[in-house]
Specification:
This protein has 118 residues and is an alpha+beta fold. It is 31% helix and 10% strand. It is built from four helices and four strands. The strands form two sheets. It has a two-stranded antiparallel ribbon. It has a two-stranded antiparallel sheet with strand order 3-4. A hairpin with an 8-residue loop joins strand 1 and strand 2. The longest helix has 13 residues. The mean pLDDT is 84.
């Protein structure tokens, strides 16, 4: 069944698209990001890393001393496409989804925020 087209999710754009953003507003890192994070090798490594490190490292003190289950493998230093830094085990840290989202939006420029230096 075909879905009706929707308006581009970029603010102020009225272009009709099947999903997400139109070609003019599509984020350039999306394909590269997906290729790296959606690879079978990374998914297997990340699952194993979280199994060995089951609790969030809580790098920002957001959990107030509570132990929260880790759900993903985060990067201590944003790799920004540097595959050596991306794969370096010393740069990995177990994070819950909340801490990972906070890190991405605060330090890596997610959701249009300015990138900050840690």
């Amino acid at each position: 069944m075909l879905k009706p087209k929707r308006i581009c999710t970029s603010p102020g754009c009225r272009e009709l698209v099947s999903e997400g953003r139109c070609v003019a507003h599509k984020r350039p890192h999306t394909e590269r990001h997906s290729a790296v994070y959606d690879s079978v090798g990374w998914k297997e490594y990340s699952r194993g890393y979280v199994a060995r490190n089951p609790f969030c490292a809580d790098p920002y003190g957001r959990h107030r001393g509570q132990r929260v289950a880790a759900s993903c493998t985060g990067h201590k230093v944003a790799h920004r496409g540097d595959m050596r830094l991306f794969r370096d085990p010393a740069n990995h840290t177990p994070l819950c989804n909340s801490c990972n989202a906070f890190m991405c939006t605060t330090f890596e420029g997610g959701f249009g925020n300015a990138r900050r230096v840690e």
